[in-house]
Write a structure and sequence with these properties.
- The structure holds 2 protein chains of 2 kinds.
- By secondary structure, chain A is an alpha/beta fold.
- Chain A has 3 domains: 184 residues, Aconitase, domain 3, CATH 3.30.499; 88 residues, Aconitase, Domain 2; 153 residues, Aconitase, domain 3.
- Chain A has 15 helices and 19 strands.
- In chain A, the strands form 5 sheets. In chain A, strands 5-4-3-6-7 form a 5-stranded parallel sheet. In chain A, strands 17-16-15-18-19 form a 5-stranded parallel sheet, covered by helices on one side. A 4-stranded parallel sheet of chain A has the order 11-10-9-12.
- In chain A, helix 2 packs across helix 5, helix 6 runs parallel beside helix 8 and helix 12 crosses helix 14.
- Chain A is globular, with a radius of gyration of 21 Å.
- Chain B has 2 domains: 168 residues, Aconitase, domain 4; 31 residues, no CATH class.
- Helices cover 36% and strands 16% of the residues of chain B.
- In chain B, strand 2, helix 3 and strand 3 form a beta-alpha-beta unit.
- In chain B, 44% of the residues are buried.
- The chains are: A alpha/beta, B alpha/beta.
- At the A-B interface, helix 2, helix 5, strand 8, helix 10 and helix 11 of A face helix 4, helix 7, helix 8 and helix 9 of B.
Chain lengths: 469, 204
């Protein structure tokens, strides 16, 4: 009898090339996505050392961070991005790497197109020079974000030297109330346990609520692992995972599919496998969440009152809250509902998949965005965009006064022309509410697509449950 | 990468928790290779919207304009994986950040570039920062070989670091050279793995 293992252990063990005497592991990396945001120096270093990409089939490059989302866009639509888009195009060409350019129908946000194309498969190790790479962990993959130097190492050697993190399990049980979505669960977890709770850990999300969750919702949960402190977040493989992967473009087919999927079915945590830390969340307690501050842990239920820093015991949390309320122009003790907004953004690697857009569309259908609010829907990939148009979502959104854009990171990262202007307030399906994140002096409230949609209609932060009867 | 053995210089106190990589290197710093990312370090707290300096920001005040060491709050470097955050600190002149804890990706990025992410207990960071704020001579010495931090007024703290990171910093060793020496192991792994998991190497 071998010792019980977690899904993390099983994937890790399968990728060990060798263990070093200092305790580090040389781990094989099965997949890497390269993007236009920060990878140019990796190619420069390769060129300097006269290195080639070791396994071209295991790497794909795409534009997402810098590319404009405007209708009719080109690589030149956002002038400050031109240099970097050119650099990625030329580098991909020079190094022979598969590249999805601005007007390629396969273009989209790295963490949206990887699962969607089947480039991400269960059981793979997956890296990308982006902190939200754990999104891919929803497929039972070990996925994490790395810096530019490590991107170069992976291009050159398809491996990385790593130390095994500790392991934490979050068990979500209980049913989600009306108006509560996967986004609310992960925001609630971060709000309750803080942004550094999982630093140094790989996190497994488990429990009946996760098993009942569709795959795209699972991606939203894994996506925000980094805001919980964890580089890696993942889930065990079940039949929903297998069904999701089946038939995708890069997924194995025929006899190979049978072999692969049989292996993947083993990728669940064994009973009695040990974790270094465990947290339980009763999902019945969770209401729609909205952030009030400048850290993803500064989170509240939409119908609560804005907290008073004076009542906070932890001096760091108190200091942070005082600064945040000033920056956000909010008063302690007041309701958040009714706070006027200037922007409503639906998109980003957290919430830009078809199911996210469907939820939002159901809320806005037959209603109008409040005048004065700029409301944007930015599908996560051109494939999501096409699928949305095929079922008429574009029409629902544009009839309501939303803009329907092309795929990219858009207003989450603001290096592509989509920005919140100074002093303006945005409610956004993104993952970070840092000061200046959506533009200098921007004020960001994080929420689910449903809450953002409801707020766009109200012209103010709104409780989506009131629109759902 | 640049070797790190001992660094002595002005240390700037910034005891704020969760200093994130957007703060260290805002989006604008990523625009072009011609942008001076060191000038844009903490840009949103360092400059007014018109580009003029915000006087009371610590790094705009002498002697901290010349700081080589930063003393900060917990979870330093949280947020995105942008390595530019490390490069921006280095471009400004920092060789070492002292904090109670670091975000995982930032810590790795720091080591890859020879910026020392040095962990001290929260009380030690606070004591060091308080002393630096009051001192006329806010100099800190970091001795990697001895694993010791020395501050003004005789403050002295030992620190821990993994042996491989210490050796790499002392020797200025780039990890790519270690990885390339292991290529025969990678070849052998992939040869075995191609049989066990062919779908990894041949996309469907």
């Amino acid at each position: 009898m071998s010792a019980p293992r977690t899904v993390f252990d099983k994937i890790w063990d399968q990728h060990v090339i060798r263990t070093l005497t200092d305790g580090r592991t040389l781990l094989h990396i099965d997949r890497q996505m390269i993007h236009d945001g920060s990878n140019r120096q990796a190619f420069d270093a390769m060129r300097q050392m006269n290195l080639k990409v070791r396994n071209l089939d295991l790497n794909i490059a795409v534009v997402d961070h810098i590319v404009s989302s405007l209708p009719g866009r080109t690589g030149e639509s956002h002038p400050p991005g031109i240099e970097r888009i050119h650099a990625l195009r030329n580098n991909s060409h020079e190094f022979d790497m598969e590249f999805y350019d601005v007007n390629d129908p396969r273009q989209g946000i790295v963490h949206v197109i990887s699962p969607e194309t089947g480039f991400t498969l269960p059981g793979v190790t997956f890296v990308c020079g982006d902190s939200h790479t754990a999104t891919n962990g929803a497929l039972g993959a070990l996925a994490w974000g790395i810096g530019t130097t490590e991107v170069m190492y992976v291009m050159a050697t398809q491996s990385l030297l790593v130390r095994k993190p500790q392991q934490m399990r979050i068990t979500f049980d209980g049913s989600m109330a009306k108006g509560v979505y996967a986004k609310d669960l992960i925001l609630y977890l971060i709000g309750r346990h803080g942004v550094k709770c999982a630093t140094g850990f790989a996190v497994e999300y488990a429990g009946q609520t996760i098993r009942d969750m569709p795959m795209e919702a699972r991606m939203t949960v894994c996506n925000m692992s980094i805001e919980f402190g964890a580089r890696m977040g993942l889930m065990g493989v079940d039949e929903a995972t297998i069904d999701y992967v089946r038939g995708r473009k890069f997924a194995p087919k025929g006899a190979m599919w049978d072999r692969a999927s049989a292996q993947w079915r083993e990728l669940a945590t064994d009973a009695d496998a040990p974790f270094d830390k465990e947290i339980h969340i009763d999902c019945a307690d969770v209401k729609p969440q909205v952030s009030w501050g400048n850290s993803p842990q500064e989170m509240m239920s939409v119908d609560d009152r804005i907290p008073d820093p004076a009542s906070m015991r932890d001096p760091e949390r108190r200091a942070s809250a005082e600064t945040a309320l000033k920056y956000m122009d909010l008063q302690p003790g007041q309701p958040l509902i009714g706070t006027p907004i200037d922007y409503a953004f639906i998109g980003s690697c957290t919430n830009s998949r078809l199911s996210d857009l469907e939820v939002a569309a159901a809320i806005v259908k037959g209603r109008r965005v409040r005048p004065g609010v700029q409301a944007l829907v930015v599908p996560g990939s051109m494939d999501v965009k096409a699928a949305g148009e095929a079922i008429g979502l574009d029409k629902v959104f544009t009839d309501a006064g939303f803009e329907w854009r092309n795929a990219g990171c858009s207003m989450c990262v603001t290096s592509n022309g989509d920005v919140v202007l100074p002093g303006k307030r945005s409610i956004s399906t993104t993952n970070r509410n840092f000061e200046h994140r959506q533009g200098p002096k921007s004020r960001t409230h994080l929420a689910s697509p449903a809450t953002v949609a409801a707020s766009a209609i109200a012209g103010a932060i709104a409780d989506v449950r009131k629109l759902m009867n | 990468m640049e070797r790190f053995s001992q660094v002595e210089g002005v240390a700037a106190p910034m005891m704020v928790a969760n200093i994130n990589t957007d703060a260290l290197s805002p989006t604008a710093a990523g625009k072009s290779t011609s942008v001076d990312i060191g000038k844009l370090l903490f840009a949103n707290s360092r400059y007014h919207l018109d580009g003029s300096e915000i006087e009371d920001f610590v790094l705009n005040r002498p002697p901290f304009r010349e700081a080589k060491i930063l003393v900060a709050g917990e979870n330093f470097g949280c947020g995105s994986s942008r390595e530019r955050a490390v490069w921006a600190l280095q471009k400004f002149g920092f060789r070492c950040v002292i904090a109670p804890s670091f975000a995982d990706i930032f810590r790795d990025n720091s080591y890859q570039n020879g910026l020392l992410p040095l962990e001290l207990p929260p009380e030690a960071c606070q004591a060091l920062a308080d002393t630096l704020t009051k001192s006329n001579d806010p100099i800190v010495r970091v001795d990697l070989e001895k694993q010791e931090v020395t501050g003004p007024n005789g403050l002295r703290f030992p620190f821990g670091i993994s042996q491989e990171r210490k050796m790499a910093l002392l020797e200025g060793l780039d990890e790519i050279s270690v990885l390339r020496r292991m290529e025969p192991d990678i070849d052998a792994f992939q040869a075995r793995d191609r049989i066990e998991r062919p779908w990894i190497y041949e996309r469907g």
